[in-house]
Amino acid sequence: MTYSHLEEVSGEVGAFQLKVRKKARYVNEDLCTGCGACVEKCPTTVEDAFNVGLGERKAIYKYFPQGIPSTHCIDAENCRQLGQGKKCGICAKVCQAGAVDYEQQDQFVDLEVGAIVLATGYDVFDPSVIPEYGYGRIDNVVTAIEFERLLSASGPTHGHLDRPSELALRVEIAALDKDLKKFNRQIDKLEEKHGKKTAEFVKEFKAGQAGEDGDFERWASLAEKAAVAEEKLAPLNKKEAAAHTAKKLAFIQCVGSRDFRFNRFCSSYCCMHSVKEAMIAHEHDNETTSSIFCMDLRAVGRGFEEYKLRGGKSANIQYIRGRVAEITEDEAHNPIVWYESTTTRTVEHETFDMVVLATACVPSAGTPKLAELMGLDLDENGFFKTDSLIPLDTSRPGIFVCGCAQGPMDIPESVAQASSAAARAAEVVFTAPKAASGGGK
Amino acid sequence: MVLGGGIAGIQTSLDLAEMGIQVHLVETLPCIGGKMAQLDKTFPTNDCAI
To answer: pLDDT of B3-48, one tens digit each?
Structure first.
């Protein structure tokens, strides 16, 4: 059941009663073929959550191209028809399968289960609360997950390592271009109507020799607007022409973790994902160089140490022991990293094309609410509490937890825990009297 | 019931289903996949994440 929330929990181990709200998609899942014709025609564009705000999507959308179930969904809040009460209905008109249904309502599903496994995952720490790193203020300081989307072939830049400052520049240029074209279209019409070139008209108008006509005021103001837009565009186009992909990268470790101001714990996987991202960036363009700023690089796992060394040898990665104090920005939007190199015991600074913050793994936003709903305890870091000798059991019998809902861990560890949680849940289901009668899990 | 359709939730559901147990997988977002679907490649093998 996707697009669903757990609303109520009662009962006990072996026989839990649950109420799940299945939110209205406004698209009939059984009819939708996932062709995407509706997306092409939808007039509303909003920020794309899957691409962490780096791209755009329509109000009717599929969360990501390979997503399962392969069916679309309307974001009611941003939809012209549903959220804003305007007449639209375009998606319903273009849908050949007749799957769009604006009347669909939320449904409630009652479930009876023997055991519950929580695999609610984690959230990425928001680094904008650390002012010295300038996230949100400096365009080319990004989080690791944003960088991951920039590297991805299915991401907003199709795998080109374009810098966010240049992406913003392109958006600005496109908006100005659109305005300029609009002005020019109107000016062309006026030129044709009056049989005069704009330059000639403006000269006459300024000299007060143009005469009287209803159009003249508008023509003059359009000519002025077009000139302003052109003036603004010229330097932007110049900048765009000089733009290049990011080739010199800095990775900053422990952003929000191992930091007494925020989270004391180690997020465990960030060291390795920074090495990985630096290696992949080098694979995209072998001129790319990376510096990883860390307190210590924790490569604990099978094959991880070798991976780290391989990065240093063959992917132009330099490991720098030192905590970054501040990030500033130069005129060309290049971030400047100020740090103390603990090997030379000096404060140094270096300019990069882009800085990637290895953000901490924090409990997902819904964790406290879910814990209250289910009557579960949380640990001192806000993850679901477990015992180190029975690592999958929560404080309530019959409810198990696996993956990052329990604490930061990497993918192999999550998968291993998931299989263990399945075994623990199966134990409950097979021994509970309900299960024998086919009540399910 | 498995709550959360990320890599951990999917793996738990598949394992339980293989044991012949009926599973309800509940996910908040419109698609399953979770954070891992957002990743490009995974360490230490640089395999594709999707």
So the answer is: 999 999 999 999 999 999 999 999 999 999 999 998 988 888 888 8
Which two structure tokens, joined as six digits, stand for A368? 């406290």
pLDDT for A433: 63
A33/A98 same-domain check: yes
Nearest CA in chain B to A26: B30
A391 contact partners, CB below 8 Å, separation of at least 6: A406, A417
Task: Please check whether residues A265 and A357 belong to one and the same domain.
Answer: yes
The CA distance from B49 to the nearest CA of chain A, in Å, is 10
Could you tell me the residue range of the domain that residue A137 belongs to? 124-162+246-362
Cβ of A414 within 8 Å of Cβ of B25? The answer is no
Residues A141 and A189 grouped into a single domain: no
Q: Are residues A60 and A194 in the same domain?
A: no
Is A435 inside a domain boundary? no
pTM, 2 dp:
0.87
Does A117 contact B at CB distance below 8 Å?
A: yes
> The complex's ipTM?
0.93
Q: Which among A296, A265, A267 has a CA at the least distance from the CA of A409?
A: A267
A155 and A298: one domain?
A: yes
Quick one: which of A269, A279, A332, A264 has its CA closest to A301? A269
- Mean pLDDT across chain A, nearest whole number? 91
Residues 224-263 of A with CB under 8 A from B: none
Instruction: Look up the CATH number of the domain holding residue A313.
Output: 3.50.50.60
- Under DSSP, the state recorded for A356 is E
Tens-digit pLDDT profile for residues A313-366 = 999 999 999 999 999 999 989 999 999 988 889 999 999 999 999 999 999 999
Assigned domain for A290 exists: yes
How many cross-chain Cβ pairs, A to B, lie less than 8 Å apart?
184
Q: From chain B, pick out residues whose CB is under 8 angstroms from the CB of A4.
A: 26-28
Q: Which residue of A has its CA nearest to B24?
A: A1
8 Å CB contact between A419 and A392: no
